Structures are given as C-alpha cells and as structure tokens.
Amino acid sequence: MDELLLTLPIIQPQAAAPAAPAKPRKPDWLRVKLPVGPEYAKVRRLVDEHKLHTICESGNCPNMGECWGAGTATFMILGNICTRSCSFCAVATGRPTEYDTDEPRRVAEAIQLMSVKHAVITSVNRDELKDRGASIWHETVVLIKQLSPTTTIETLIPDVKANWAALDTMISGGQEVVSHNIETVGSLYRLVRPQGKYDRSLEQIRRTKDAGKRTKSGIMLGLGETQDEMYQAMDDLVANGLDILTLGQYLQPTKRHLEVAEFIHPDLFAHYREEGLRRGLKYVESGPLVRSSYHAERHVNVPI
Asked: Which residues form the signal peptide (predicted)?
C-alpha cells in the first residue's frame, strides 16, 4: 500500500479562475404575484376564444395579473411577429404572415363583451406593409367606438419610419390618447433600438401633437442611462409636445436579450417624476413596475 501511494503523482491545486462580475440581483420591490382570480380567468377565456394577441403576454408584462384582474387588457393587433429586432423586447422577430382584415371586428366585439371602460391597443412593427398597417389601426378604433361608444381608447403606435400619411391614418379614428414610446435615451439607441432613430420618434410625437392629440411616451430605466441623459430626454419630449410620460424598470425577458445594467431604486423613480413635472410634462407615471399601459385609464383626463 505504501509503495502504491509513493507512485501516485502529486497534484498541485489549480488557481481559482477570476470571478465573473456579479450581476445585479433583482430587488424585493420587483416581485409580483402570479395572476389569479375570476376576472383574470374571464379575460383569459375571452382572449383565447377570440384568438386575440395581447402585449400583456407577448411582452411578459409584470402587471398582467393586476390589470387583467381588474378586467382590462392591452390588445396587440396586426399579428405577434415584429419586423424589428429590438434588443429589449420579448415579442418574436421575423417575417410576419398574418394580415387579418377581420381582426378589427373581433377586437371590438371582445372589448364590448368584456365591458371595458378604457382600452389600450398596440401592435408590432409592420415595416413590410406600405401603409405600416394604418388601415387596420384606423378600422379597429372606429369599430370599438361604434360598438362601445363610452369606451375611451389609447393607441400605442409603432415607429412609422417617417411615413407621415400612415401616421395621419393611424391617429384619426377617434382615440383619446396616442402613445409612442421612445424607450431609452438618445445615446443608447443603437444598442436598444438598432432600427429606430431617436430624432424620428421625437418628430412622430411632434406631428401627433400638431394634429391635436393627447400625446404619451415611455422610457425604460436601468439600461445604462445617466441622470443627465434622462433630464435631456425629458426636455426633448417636452419640446416636442409630449403630455404624458411613463417610466419603468427594464427587465431582461430572456438570456438572449440585453442584460439589466442597474436596478433603479423607487426613490429615484419618485425623483424623476418630480423632475418631469417640473420640466413641463403634464403627467408622469414613474415606478419600477410601471409599463406603458399601467393606470392608462387615468391618462385620458390629462388636459391637451
């Protein structure tokens, strides 16, 4: 036994590999409850029965339980495949195959069945369509108003790539709020929205305001922006006629998407809300779990 031990090689301990930089841990204030309850189940059933897409599901929204539990949802028209490949978004990217001219009727009937008081409609980008899907947008809003005349509507519209005729069609159906999210500060556009342009989105908001609409936009925090860049973005939005701004924490939807650079403390969200109001915005919804449609029913009362 001793001889055997003497013939074994001496193994030197290997130096430990350098530790990878620690990723920021998700704080307690970002934990949400799973969706439950009869109202949530009702909305779930109607969405399935009418073969509707919701950004609540496609975008992995953390407020789906709260909003659906209150009997509301944000519907996504024009399919669930987007022509853009934004590095923050959970919606599938590819070549869309869906163009359903009956979709406006189905969405309007579902909203009527659900007795929705305030509906939010959004869509994927459809850059391959000559009118960017504007005719479907317009008909959807018109039919909702016909079937549910007391329902107020917000339309969260995509970047029309400077097709201003398409924009005019999209925003002329009678909706009370027109939203277009700039998503992040100007310096991060190539990283976050590689097919978007900061100045073009600002111009889209300006043209919407010039058309007499109540304007709204949203920014995700925690992607690496500085406080000074946030102040500049607010000033740019005010200068281009924005009325309502939503600010929320970016959450990485999958490992293939951008990592979170920082989890923003609720106190800083509160500070940004006060700064936004001080800089001329009429309404700021700001908090870690805020998303574009969060408390959207409150925004229809913001004066134009």
From this structure: none
Question: Is 89 part of any known ligand binding site?
Answer: yes
Q: Is 286 annotated as a binding residue?
A: no
Which sign does the torsion angle of CA 44, 48, 50, 54 carry?
positive
Q: Is 217 known to sit in a ligand binding site? A: no
Annotated binding-site residue? 82: yes
86 annotated as belonging to a binding site for a ligand: yes
Under 8 Å between Cβ of 205 and 241: yes
Check whether 56 is labelled as a binding-site residue: yes
Given CA atoms 257, 262, 267, 269 in this order, what sign does their dihedral have? negative
What global pTM score does this model have? 0.84
Q: Is the pLDDT of residue 138 over 90?
A: yes
201 is in an annotated binding site: no
